[in-house]
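Annotated sample (chain length 443).
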Amino acid sequence: MEVAEIAAAPARVHIRVTDVLENIGDRNLAYLEVNLPAGAPFGRVNLSVRVDGRDVAAASLASDSAAPVRVPFDPPWPPKQVRTVVFDYDCAPELAERSVVAATSDGFHLGDPNAFPGWLPPSGLFAKAELGIRKEQFDFVVPREFLVLAPGTERRSTRQDGTTLHRFSISPSDSSVFVIAGRYQQQRFRTQYGDVIFWTSVPLDAQAAKTAAERLAATNATFSRVFGPASKKSQPVRIVETSADLAPSYESDTGISALSFPGGVLLDRHAFAQGIAAEPVLELAEYELARTWFGWRARPRPEEESLMGRGAGLFAVVLAAEERGGIPAREREIARLLAAYDRASAPSGQISLAADSARDRRLPGAFKNALFWAALEDLAGRQNFEHAVRRMVQARAGLDLSVDDLRAAIEWATGRDFYDTFRMWLDRPGIPENFRTRYPSAP
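Output written by the structure step:
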């Protein structure tokens, strides 16, 4: 995989992926199908595909831009032979939800593994459904003064005509593919819970950065205890500024936006303008940091993102507050979520929404689902709840995460049936009255 910025107006990101594949089956292959980035978050344009150095007419299987693309092999690809397939395309993204791809003259980021091709298994009753990856290499060509953050291990950097090629090797455990690159100054702070690294366009006030570092490192330690280790080796928490505009965050109405990446948070310039130690900025950073577990380590199914992604992240902020301030802090955060739900709730109170629902329609669901997580902790008991969630997240690492996984984990940890609880919260409108009685909303 090769990624380079195109210094155009507007700036774009060019991606080249070279796959060397072996047909390990027992018959010829006339084609394979592949998922390519689609939609406004990616803005894929200028696609070309080559097989063994020859251009091929790769065609989408439907008018929908998200439909798989068919890569033909002419002549058909015999067993035990190797083919090299090269994809070239640009990402010219629009300002879209979560802003997973963006580029400016000062840097770029790719925060979604779907920015790269994903092969579908060959069709047929006896076709193998696994793609055994033996080796991956990630190359970035950036201006010489850029810093680069990516998964894996950097093996070398080579300067060439005002640019630098950074080469990373990726192991099977590095399943989260992302990249952040830009003109940054680095500040590193050591805390009792680990290091925090800031990459910003200008240096931060040292005292404010130290205050933020201590809180975010403590929050990360809380998440690691409750949800389990996010990776096999200890890593610093990274907070990075982006020069690109990000779509408004669901959970913040303070004019700041953020995006998660494994072990860190990308914050927009408005967040740094408010101050890195400002409470709204820290809470948004904590929410996105929780997405390391509920988005990167385990991937919520798209149709259940409200509960297993956004709801989990909002509840994680409650956990962090309780760790700092005890039960009173937990109760204040829950009351705040209740008040936010009441302000945002649609008249119907329904929370089952399509994945592409507008932000204002999704807000009630996100807040209600965060409150559901709090109700589950109350009913299961803290120790059982943490045991269940930690086992669930670790067991589903690299896999899809669903509401069925959550219910199974809670029932396993408690030895009780939670069917009625899930039905009451997820299938009925509004907030159960017994929960409101326990946690009256903030005025």
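Annotation: The longest strand covers residues 12-22.
Annotation: The CA atoms of residues 258 and 267 lie 4 Å apart.
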